[in-house]
Amino acid sequence: MENKKHLGHFMSIFTHPRVLVFFIIGITVIFLTFLTNNNAIEIVISGFASVFIGIAVNNFTSFETHIKDEEKIKRKISHSLKVMEITKSRIKLIHAELNIQSVTKTKEQLAELEQIIVLSMALIKDEETLS
User: Fold this and answer.
1) Among candidates 29, 48, 45, 28, which has minimal Cα distance to 37?
2) Mean pLDDT for the chain?
3) Greatest CA span in the chain, whole angstroms?
4) How many CB atoms lie within 10 A of CB 22?
5) In three state form, how does the secondary structure of 99-113 look?
6) pLDDT value at position 57?
7) Burial of 19 by CB count in 10 Å (0-12 exposed, 13-18 middle, 19+ buried)?
8) Is the pLDDT of residue 130 over 50?
9) Cβ atoms of residues 85 and 45 within 8 Å
């Protein structure tokens, strides 16, 4: 099952136009070496083809790195949201327990902190991707 997932991931990146086009151009240029008998020209054609294949490999790895970076950011956002939820619930608990009249200012400050955390959570949820 995991191999199918990796194969699907590979194929989705490999078939991206910025990757596939350069691979096809490189392979086509390599086949031009069969049309010549001169070794020097074959070497030049192979070098030219390797440039296109190198560009394709570079594009492939950059897409892969971008996807991994997005996954890391999503995990970090998820962890941050969990911590903020815990903090918010603790502030609410403290706010509810402070029913004495002399601590009105503390209650107001805790209410403000709770609003700031809610705002921060909303901002984090809005910015979930790199793009």
Assistant:
1) 45
2) 82
3) 97
4) 20
5) CCHHHHHHHHHHHHH
6) 93
7) buried
8) no
9) no
Neighbouring CB atoms inside 10 A of 48's CB total 14
- Encode pLDDT of 56-104 as tens digits: 999 999 988 988 888 888 888 888 888 888 888 877 777 777 766 566 7
Question: Looking at the predicted structure, is the pLDDT value of residue 1 above 70?
Answer: no
Q: Helix and strand tally (H, E) in the chain?
A: 4, 0
pTM over 0.70: no
Q: Which long-range contacts (CB under 8 A, 24 or more apart) does 6-14 make?
A: 9/67, 13/60, 13/63, 13/64, 13/67, 14/60
DSSP class per residue in 65-124: HHHHHHHHHHHHHHHHHHHHHHHHHHHHHHHHH--SGGGHHHHHHHHHHHHHHHHHHHHH
The count of residues in the chain is 131
Helices 104-126 and 39-97: angle between axes, nearest 10 degrees: 160
Question: Letter for the amino acid at 103?
Answer: V
